Amino acid sequence: MTTRYDEADFTQSLMGTLHETGHALYEQNLPLKWRGQPVGLARGMALHESQSLLVEMQLSRSEAFLEYAYPLLEDVFGDKSEAWSFENIKKLYHRVERGLIRVDADEVTYPLHVILRYRLEKQLLSGDLPVAQLPQAWNDGMQQLLGVRPQTDSMGCLQDIHWPSGAIGYFPTYTLGALSAAQFFTAANEKLPELTQDVKTGRFEKLTNWMADNIHQSASFETTDEVLKRVTGRPLSTEAFKKHLIQRYLKD
Fold first, then answer.
1. What is the pTM for the complete model shown?
2. 20 is a catalytic site residue
């Protein structure tokens, strides 16, 4: 597992670690009987990202989780200033802001970073966009989608490792994962009506056991679509994700 640190913002390492915990839980809970066999592997990266984003975004950025974590964070980092009030920390967790860097983006603007990369990938692979024109196309796309414009390529088209490492077509898995995570977490709350109260008191076993039993143990015996339909009762859609964003960011 990896994480990264910012001395001015503890949330980066905390949320990064929780994100990787979601990935780790999936790998840890794959069926032992089939370990090492193709059918026993994780189904795919869209499903993998759904598990990391379920833990990071759906669970760990929820108000219930913050109620549990706030006293711990205050004890380690906090003081008695207004900046460390519960309400202000909640605003920090739920801040929406346009930015240049994908990995720093909030869950509202993040899909726009993915849409840009997907559009450019298709143009690069089709030959419609010469590589030499990528920086300009990237900057124009950021301006169009997010209203910000990189001043350097390191803040623009060179910020990710995916294309240089050959991971072409990977970026959409993040947004497919976010949509799936919202759908799974909605189903978890329906099946576990006490989940919110459990999270407030730091009891996560019912959720992680539910994830293992319903998602992780299926490994590659089912397609991602089949897992979604079985667990949530419907194919992948934007409905749960849109409802989640409205509830978290517009309810006030």
1. 0.94
2. yes
Final residue before a domain boundary, out of 172, 199, 224? 172
In this structure, the answer to whether residues 115 and 128 fall within a common structural domain is yes
Candidates 7, 20, 87, 194; catalytic one: 20
Mean pLDDT confidence for 57-66: 96
pLDDT at 252 exceeding the cut of 70: no
**By residue range, what is the domain housing residue 165?**
107-172
C-beta separation of 15 from 60 below 8 A? yes
Judge if 35 and 80 occupy the same domain.
yes
Task: Give the pLDDT band (50/70/90) at residue 232.
Answer: very high
Ordered DSSP codes for 68-128: HHHHHHHHHH--SSGGGSHHHHHHHHT-----S-GGG--TTTHHHHHHHHHHHHHHHHHTS
